[in-house]
């Protein structure tokens, strides 16, 4: 089902006001136009069933608060995670897993994206790793969390995508930047979260708390959604690689397995 804000119950059973629903529809349409695919990946071939078990979008922070070295640590950490035997076992247990990535920053800038990659076995996981490593940095600016989530939602709710589970894996080191001048062009993080909830999309978050020690609490209140949604916290970018590996194992694994995986506080200092 294409991404369209719905009137009805949102997070906590609250009714979404028509004005908000209209603004979210406009934000969705705008982000669909702004999101320009980049990189070297091509759309993954559909499995014989026509659907996949998991469609996962990695939403990676490339805003101005992330230095060039920190951006590289994120790319290398994600690549290393997909080469990790534990992550590959989780993918095998989950079934057919398709992966894409969105690199986000200012809400007004087009988001750099990869195509979908089918992570089938070690060769597929290696293809994901190489795709992430090959992505150049093409965005910076403010912390546009809402726009990042909407971009990922547009990908996950495309009519041609069929998946039993749809997940956004968001990582970042700051709260959403408040728009002081002019009009906001996209949904806020809580509005995007409510859209995800309405469409059955799970959002999990990794809080990199090098500048904001309580960022995990902010993500818990404003970003994550889903029956098993969680936030993990890491104190700095040096721990990103280990954190993203554990996070991927937890969110990709089938629910009966993921309940036995790491806890959300496993990486807290």
Structural overview:
This protein is an alpha/beta fold. The chain has one domain: von Willebrand factor, type A domain (Rossmann fold, 3-Layer(aba) Sandwich). Helices cover 38% and strands 16% of the residues. The protein is built from nine helices and seven strands, in the order αβααβββααβαβαβαα. It has helices at residues 18-34, 68-82, 85-94, 121-134, 145-156, 189-198, 215-222, 240-252, 255-258, and strands spanning 52-61, 97-104, 112-113, 117-118, 163-172, 201-208, 231-234. Strands 1, 2, 3, 4, 5, 6 and 7 form a seven-stranded mixed beta sheet that branches. Strand 2 and strand 3 form a beta hairpin. Helix 2 runs antiparallel to helix 4 and helix 5 (145-156) packs parallel to helix 6. It is globular and about 40 Å long. The protein starts with 17 loop residues before the first helix and ends in an 11-residue tail after the last helix. Residues 55-252 form the VWFA domain.
């Amino acid at each position: 089902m294409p991404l369209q804000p719905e009137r009805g119950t949102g997070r906590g059973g609250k009714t979404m006001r028509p004005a908000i629903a209209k603004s979210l529809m406009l934000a969705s349409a705008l982000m669909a136009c702004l999101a320009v695919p980049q990189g070297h990946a091509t759309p993954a071939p559909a499995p014989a069933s026509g659907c996949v078990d998991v469609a996962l979008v990695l939403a990676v922070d490339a805003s101005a608060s992330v230095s060039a070295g920190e951006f590289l640590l994120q790319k290398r950490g994600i690549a290393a995670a997909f080469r990790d035997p534990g992550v590959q076992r989780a993918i095998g247990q989950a079934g057919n897993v398709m992966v894409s990535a969105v690199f986000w920053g200012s809400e007004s800038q087009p988001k750099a994206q990869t195509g979908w990659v089918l992570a089938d076995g070690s060769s597929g996981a290696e293809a994901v790793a190489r795709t992430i490593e090959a992505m150049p940095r093409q965005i910076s600016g403010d912390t546009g969390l809402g726009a990042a989530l909407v971009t990922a939602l547009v990908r996950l709710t495309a009519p041609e995508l069929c998946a039993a589970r749809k997940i956004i894996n968001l990582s970042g080191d700051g709260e959403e930047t408040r728009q002081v001048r002019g009009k906001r062009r996209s949904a806020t993080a809580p509005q995007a979260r409510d859209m995800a909830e309405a469409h059955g999309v799970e959002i999990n978050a990794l809080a990199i708390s090098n500048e904001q020690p309580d960022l995990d609490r902010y993500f818990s209140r404003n970003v994550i959604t889903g029956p098993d949604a969680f936030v993990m916290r890491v104190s700095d970018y040096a721990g990103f690689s280990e954190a993203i590996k554990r996070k991927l194992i937890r969110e990709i694994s089938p629910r009966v397995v993921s309940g036995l995986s790491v806890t959300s506080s496993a990486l807290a200092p």
